[in-house]
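fwd from M.: "can u put these together and see what the complex looks like"

so here's what she sent:
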Amino acid sequence: MEDNKGNHMTRRDFLNQAGKVGGAVAVWGAMESLGLIGHSLVGAKEFQSPKISDLTAVNKNGKKIIILGAGIAGMTAAYELRKAGYECKILEARDRSGGRNWTVRNGTKETELKGYKQTAKFDKELYMNAGPARIPQHHVTIDYCMELGVELEVFSNSNEFSYYYQENAGPLSNQKIRKGTVRADTRGYISELLAKVSDQAALDTPLSKEDIERLKDFLTRNGDLSDNLTYNGSSRRGYSELPGGGHQSGKLDEPYNFSELLQSGMMNHFSGDYSYNQQPMMFQPKGGMDQIPKALEKQLPGVITFGAEVQEIRQGPDNVRIVYKTNGKTKEITGDYCICTIPLSVLKNISADFTKPMKNAIKSISYAPAGKIGLQFKNRFWEQEDRILGGITTTNMDISQIWYPSNDYLSQKGILIGYYNFGQNAIDYGNLPHSQRQARALAQGAKIHPQYNNEFESSFSVAWQKTKYSEGGWASYSSSDLKNYYPILNEPQGRIHLAGEHLSYLTGWMAGAFESARIVVSRIHEEVLKENKVSSKAG
Amino acid sequence: MEDNKGNHMTRRDFLNQAGKVGGAVAVWGAMESLGLIGHSLVGAKEFQSPKISDLTAVNKNGKKIIILGAGIAGMTAAYELRKAGYECKILEARDRSGGRNWTVRNGTKETELKGYKQTAKFDKELYMNAGPARIPQHHVTIDYCMELGVELEVFSNSNEFSYYYQENAGPLSNQKIRKGTVRADTRGYISELLAKVSDQAALDTPLSKEDIERLKDFLTRNGDLSDNLTYNGSSRRGYSELPGGGHQSGKLDEPYNFSELLQSGMMNHFSGDYSYNQQPMMFQPKGGMDQIPKALEKQLPGVITFGAEVQEIRQGPDNVRIVYKTNGKTKEITGDYCICTIPLSVLKNISADFTKPMKNAIKSISYAPAGKIGLQFKNRFWEQEDRILGGITTTNMDISQIWYPSNDYLSQKGILIGYYNFGQNAIDYGNLPHSQRQARALAQGAKIHPQYNNEFESSFSVAWQKTKYSEGGWASYSSSDLKNYYPILNEPQGRIHLAGEHLSYLTGWMAGAFESARIVVSRIHEEVLKENKVSSKAG
């Protein structure tokens, strides 16, 4: 490989070069084109951060960009544009950055729409990630953590030691059963069923006789089957008495009855862990998810105006003008472009110079209701007593999930996520005052962890659909929305560009906000470069 | 529930009480008997640490216990016995504690049997766990970490983003394929095969019609099947182009051909992750596995004599006498009991007052050959370029496995485990001088990670069968050994008791050493209490 001066470059030289120019993602794209990594990890278009030299080359300074919202998308846009010297101003309605990336700590205050007020009484060192809480390996979020120096630790998304617990689901109802036990039994039975008919099952397939033997061999291993291809239980499902020292050889239990397992529906929860965005390993920033917005904010000194509630979004042929309210006063700010990251659920009520189809698109998209409660306990009984270190218990009760903390294992106290639910369950919880949400979460959780009754200390709940300036968990597109409205939302409206998780195919993930911000940054930067060329030719 | 004074105790009172008396494991046992935890997690016999009051109650001080070996078993025995005031002396041949729990760092020196000498040149903040490297949630090792204040972090044992790479295995040979992709395709195909014949397959089973429908429903979810019960690929296997912002909706690839997958044998590696000792979540101490022996050693001031090589193990009716060599001088020490934790592979060559059947048993047990190499690289290309954060790549090459570090994610440098192998592969590597082990590990690893060629800095290898004072990875019992020799090894020889991972059903795990030590501690303590009672009656 040669560089542009004809010198031979080592592969590493090339990649270092690419890294300097375009950041980690450029390296990654370059890697892929060199065949150094397996495929399936790179997005379609590579992002190149705007560079200071882009603008000086055409003898012109950057433009002024007004950004609405200091969430992930807004701050990323400012961070990237400032790399090329653009002047950026962010208006943020809240008194903090991060938007839905919100870590609740001791003293956090929030008043919900319709008036429920809470103050978090958690211990000082504890926290609850009320919004995003986990990062998959392939998301661009990881690149930004690397670039911004945000330290990561494993988020335990899938722990075989956590429980399934089902109600009204046949003979296994109201029993907590470890996920690994249900998986081992299910793998055993389906392997047995298929192994016994594999000659037949393969009739319609192009499998050779040798392949069928390989299949049977695999099924035997996969299900831990006996020689007669029968599943009789397995040490993989756990023991009634663990193997230990001396003569303690361990005692196995009988597997659960397959029909009872099928009736329980527990195995229908498996596929949650299979999705590409939820496969292990997953990660969280050390010290709370808000380490990401905090790291972005640190890069933006003097850029953000907090407590600035946008009232009007206006534009003329040459500029944008934003009217906002702060400390009871109405102010305005003008700039060359506007990047609007306000959620559509909020934006629909703001007066703006958008076309009619755009206004219609904005008000047509629904947002997912989503709720979480953090429950602080005096003791980590789930670790000390249930021996569950991280992970998620899954149930068909309306709390849906219990999340065990993925940090500070074996320490004294901890905060569980006592429910994390969507849809109707989230609406139901959201309609309750906080005290009743807490009571309901405790009552259901105590069926799985009776220790709830004695160990509970304090709680904080969030109902995203009732949270001011968010009004929903994430944009929820139907397939007809994607066809009818999504293309319109993605088109700039003159000098106003929308960005955020809602302008991505990764709705509900921070990565969607990061990627959307990059697209808008590239689009504005290209436009400015084009304008500059035209004007420098003209001049 | 009432305490022994007839007062009502809350459940928590009771457990706190149990905790004070018997430590975390007693709490756990008590929990189980209260029905507070799911079953399958508690060993047969609960361990009670000896207490100072046990001995003062019979007006007699503790005995002197000579312990051979400052590994996990030896130090645990001393730690527990000293809780009741026993005088303990540990003789340790090495100049460090921990035995096979060995973290190699900058400056670590080791000369193998037959003479190969190495000095680790790793960077100061980096390390390699040469022996045990991961802890399952249910092992007693976790209890000791809690009791001793050893902080844990997740060991990424099972990462869907790491690779399978097979040679001479059909059309998919010499390709690195992400584990999650192979799993998604395999689940897809076997779900399809079974779904299509499930009516038939269930003929011989007691499944009802409703159960068969539930089974089909499960298989459809499990395999991500289409409406016609066919597997046509799935987003779970990854993308050729990831979904992202704006119009980047993501592009899927075709699944691998099922016959080619079967020929590759990749799926036969799945079951490694299913074993009860390897299911997620797994853990490692922050800062290296040797944080465990260091924490134990801290509890044993003045107890351990390092550089003391045991020459003879002698006993009379009333005492034990150990002859050892230190700094070229022969010394001896006497005591009331001896706990010998020396591996059988080493013990067989030490002169000892054992019965003939015991000597025969000791020399009959083989030890597993096991080898590891740590490779330090200038850059964490596996994170930055392959996007693998932790986990293990699995291959049929003789390196067998590549382990990515589970700590300090996104930092600059890192140490990979370049091979971890057993049996003949371990013997083959062990027979090479270090430079050739390194060359072989680099050549094979570079097939998966071509970055090996430019990024490698330094290495350190261990061949446990050639490591002085260990001479093997762990005791490897055949079923006839368990029948013929294991019972003999577990019997005390007069005043001498054997302990260690080799006296457990958890060979190769630290938990085996911990549990075995507890058994010997209880046995000696009971004997002393009995003796004391007899002598106090006599006096």
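replying to her w this: Residues 1-44 of chain A have pLDDT under 50 and may be disordered.
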